[in-house]
Design brief:
The structure holds two protein chains of two kinds.
Chain A lengths: L3 E12 L2 E12 L3 E5 L6 H8 L4 E8 L2 E2 L5 H6 L2 E4 L11 H8 L6 H14 L1 H5 L10 H13 L5 E5 L7 H17 L3 E5 L3 H7 L2 E6 L2 E7 H6 L1 H8 L2
Parallel strand pairs in A: 3-8, 3-9, 6-7, 7-8
Antiparallel strand pairs in A: 1-2, 1-4, 4-5, 9-10
Helix pairs in contact in A: 3-6
Chain B lengths: L1 H32 L6 H17 L4 H24 L7 H23 L23 H23 L1 H11 L1 H6 L4 H27 L7 H14 L4 H21 L1 H6 L1 H15 L14
Helix pairs in contact in B: 1-5, 1-8, 1-9, 1-10, 2-3, 2-4, 2-8, 3-8, 5-6, 5-8, 6-8, 9-10, 9-12
The chains are: A alpha/beta, B mainly alpha.
Bound molecules: adenosine-5'-triphosphate (ATP) and magnesium ion.
Adenosine-5'-triphosphate binds next to β2 and α1 of chain A.
C-alpha cells in the first residue's frame, strides 16, 4: 500500500498566462483512495486536469515511475487513468449503453466489453433499466452513475473523481460512495477523489491533501484530519 | 396536367437528391466542428474535374468513380490536417476565412489546370429511358438510387460500427471523448475525408446535368445549404429529406411560376433558408436535445 501509483513533483498549471497551481507535490498510493480538498477555486479540478494533460503544466508527473507529463490526453487515458469530470461529460444524444461502449473504445476484446457492461449494470441496476434511453434525459444522479460506469469500462488503474456528489440527494450519494469503496477493495482501482463535502470524503479516503489557491496547505492520513479540530474549522468547515 | 405535375415532382426529387448529397456532406462537417464549410461545393467541383481527368486517361467509368472517391477522401483528411488543425480552437471568423480561402483556391486551381470552358461529363446510367416511359430519365433514377445507397451506408456506419460511434462521440463532446481515449483529431480528419468523398459523388452525379466548369457548384452548394438547414443541420436523414424537398420546391416554382422561377432560382433557396430559420430554427429533423444537469 506504500508504493506510489501516481506522483507529482513541483506540479504547476496554467490557463494561458495565468498560473493556477504552484508547485504541488502529490502522491497517490497504489490501491488507496486519496482525497483532494479545498475551497471553491482552490485548483482541485485543475489538478485533475493537469494529471490528464488537459492543461499546460510544468513539473513532474509520474505514473508507476514513468513520466506522463506533456503526453496527449488520449495517451494518458490509455495508460489506465479514467477521469470522471466535473459536469459528468455525458454524451447526451447517445443512449445509456452507447455511453458505456464509448468508455470502452480503447479496448478491442468484444466479449470482455460485453461482460463489463453487464458488470456496470450489476453495480447500477437503474442504468440497465434505461439502457436504450437517450442519456441526456437521465436524472442527475443517473448521469453521475453513468459517468462512473463509463470510467469503469476503461478498466482503469486510477480513477480521478471530480465532485461526484455534486447536486445529488443524500441517499444517492451514499449509494455511490459505497460503490467507490467496493470498486477500490474488490476491483483494486486506486482513486483520487475531489470533494466539496469534506466529511464525506474523509470518511472514504485514507490519504488527504488540502490545497488553497493552488498551493498545498497540509497533507496526511484521513484519520488525522478528521481529528484535527483546527484544520476542520478553518479549512473544512465542519 | 397531372402528368406534368408528377414529372416535375420526380425531376425535383432527382435534382433534390444532388442537393441532398451536398447537404449530407455539409451536415457531416457541421456535426464535427460546428461550422458550415463554404468550400464544400468547390471541393466537389475539383473532385469532379479529377474524375474527368481520370476518364480522359481512359479509365473505365466506375474505376474513375472509385478512384475519385478515394482521392477526395485523402484530400479531405489532408485539408483537415494542414488547414483546419492549426485553427481548431480559433474563433469562428478564422474558420470562415479558411473556408473562403479554400473556396478561392479550389476555384482558381481548377480554372488554371483545366480552363474555364464548359465540358460534358458522362453519365454511367445512360440516356435511354428505362421503364418504357419518359417520367424519369435513367440518369435521374441513378442519382436517386446512389443517394439512397449513400444514406443507407452512412446510417449503418454511424449507427452500427464502433468507429462510427467514436466519431459521433468526438463530434458531440470532444473533451469527454478524449477522456474515453478516443483520438478526436483523427475522428475529425476522418469526418472531413468522408464529407469530401460524399461531395465528390454529388459532383460526379450532377456534372452530366449542369456540365463541368469551375463554377458549376456555386448554386448547388446554396441549395445544399438550404436542404441542410431545412433538415436541421444535425440529422443525415434530415439533410436528405431537406435536400429533396428543396429540389421539388425549386422545380415546381420553376414550372408553375415561370417568371419567378427562372430569374430568382437562387433567391428561392435563400427564402427557404430564412423561412425555416424563422419558423422552426432547429429544422424539420433537428433533434431537440433534452438535457438535464
Ligand atoms: N479555463 C480557465 N481559464 C482561466 N482560468 C480558469 C479556467 N478554469 C479555471 N480557472 C481558474 O483556476 C482557478 C482554479 O479553478 P478550479 O476549477 O481548478 O477550482 P476548483 O478547486 O475545482 O473549484 P470548484 O470547487 O469551484 O470546482 C480558479 O481561480 C479559476 O478561476
Ligand atoms: Mg472543480
Amino acid at each position: 500500500m506504500s508504493a506510489a501509483l501516481l506522483e507529482t513533483q513541483q506540479l504547476c498549471a496554467f490557463y494561458g498566462n495565468t498560473q493556477v497551481l504552484f508547485g504541488l507535490d502529490l502522491s497517490i498510493a497504489q490501491g488507496g483512495i486519496t482525497t483532494l480538498l479545498g475551497a471553491n477555486g482552490a485548483g482541485k479540478t485543475t489538478t485533475l486536469r493537469a494529471i490528464c494533460g488537459m492543461v499546460r503544466t510544468s513539473g513532474q508527473i509520474r505514473l508507476s515511475g514513468a513520466s506522463i507529463a506533456g503526453k496527449r490526453v488520449e495517451d494518458i487515458v490509455r495508460l489506465g487513468i479514467a477521469h470522471v469530470p466535473q459536469g459528468r461529460g455525458t454524451f447526451t444524444r447517445e443512449t445509456t449503453e452507447e455511453n458505456l461502449e464509448i468508455g470502452a473504445m480503447t479496448r478491442h476484446d468484444r466479449r470482455a466489453i460485453a461482460e463489463d457492461i453487464e458488470r456496470v449494470y450489476a453495480y447500477f441496476p437503474r442504468l440497465k433499466e434505461r439502457r436504450k434511453q437517450q442519456a441526456g434525459t437521465l436524472s442527475g444522479g443517473e448521469q453521475q452513475m453513468l459517468a462512473v460506469g463509463r470510467a469503469m469500462m476503461l478498466r482503469p488503474r486510477l480513477m480521478l473523481l471530480d465532485e461526484p456528489s455534486f447536486g445529488l440527494a443524500p441517499m444517492v450519494v451514499e449509494e455511490l460512495f459505497e460503490i467507490f469503496r467496493t470498486l477500490n477493495t474488490r476491483e483494486k482501482v486506486s482513486m483520487m477523489l475531489v470533494e466539496q463535502n469534506a466529511a464525506l470524503a474523509l470518511d472514504l479516503a485514507d490519504q488527504v491533501y488540502l490545497i488553497e489557491t493552488g498551493r498545498l496547505v497540509t497533507s496526511g492520513p484521513a484519520s488525522m484530519m478528521r481529528d484535527d479540530e483546527s484544520i476542520r474549522r478553518s479549512y473544512l468547515g465542519y | 396536367m397531372m402528368e406534368l405535375f408528377l414529372h416535375q415532382v420526380l425531376a425535383g426529387i432527382a435534382t433534390g437528391a444532388i442537393y441532398a448529397c451536398m447537404a449530407l456532406a455539409i451536415v457531416m462537417i457541421y456535426q464535427a466542428i460546428d461550422h458550415l464549410n463554404f468550400a464544400q461545393g468547390e471541393m466537389a467541383m475539383f473532385s469532379t474535374f479529377v474524375a474527368w481527368q481520370l476518364l480522359e486517361w481512359n479509365l473505365p467509368y466506375w474505376a474513375a468513380f472509385a478512384g475519385t472517391i478515394a482521392l477526395s477522401f485523402a484530400a479531405g483528411v489532408l485539408i483537415e490536417h494542414v488547414v483546419l488543425r492549426p485553427i481548431l480552437r480559433a474563433p469562428a471568423l478564422s474558420h470562415v476565412v479558411a473556408f473562403i480561402a479554400l473556396l478561392a483556391i479550389f476555384n482558381s486551381a481548377a480554372g488554371f489546370i483545366w480552363g474555364h470552358g464548359i465540358r460534358s461529363f458522362p453519365s454511367p446510367f445512360g440516356t435511354q429511358p428505362i421503364f418504357g416511359q419518359t417520367l424519369v430519365s435513367p440518369h435521374n433514377a441513378g442519382i436517386m438510387g446512389m443517394t439512397l445507397l449513400m444514406l443507407v451506408l452512412l446510417y449503418l456506419f454511424f449507427r452500427h460500427t464502433r468507429i462510427g460511434l467514436s466519431m459521433r462521440a468526438a463530434a458531440a463532446n470532444p473533451e469527454s471523448a478524449q477522456l474515453a481515449g478516443i483520438r478526436v483529431g483523427w475522428m475529425l480528419a476522418l469526418g472531413w475525408g468522408m464529407a469530401a468523398a460524399v461531395g465528390s459523388v454529388a459532383g460526379m452525379l450532377i456534372a452530366p446535368i449542369v456540365f463541368l466548369e469551375p463554377n458549376m457548384m456555386l448554386g448547388i452548394l446554396l441549395y445544399g445549404f438550404a436542404g441542410a438547414v431545412v433538415g436541421g443541420l444535425t440529422s443525415p436523414v434530415g439533410a436528405v429529406v431537406g435536400g429533396v424537398l428543396v429540389g421539388v420546391i425549386e422545380n415546381l416554382v420553376g414550372t408553375y411560376m415561370p417568371l419567378l422561377g427562372r430569374e430568382l432560382k437562387l433567391t428561392i433557396a435563400l427564402v427557404i433558408i430564412i423561412a425555416v430559420l424563422t419558423i422552426r430554427p432547429s429544422g424539420l429533423f433537428g433533434r431537440h436535445i433534452v438535457t438535464r444537469v
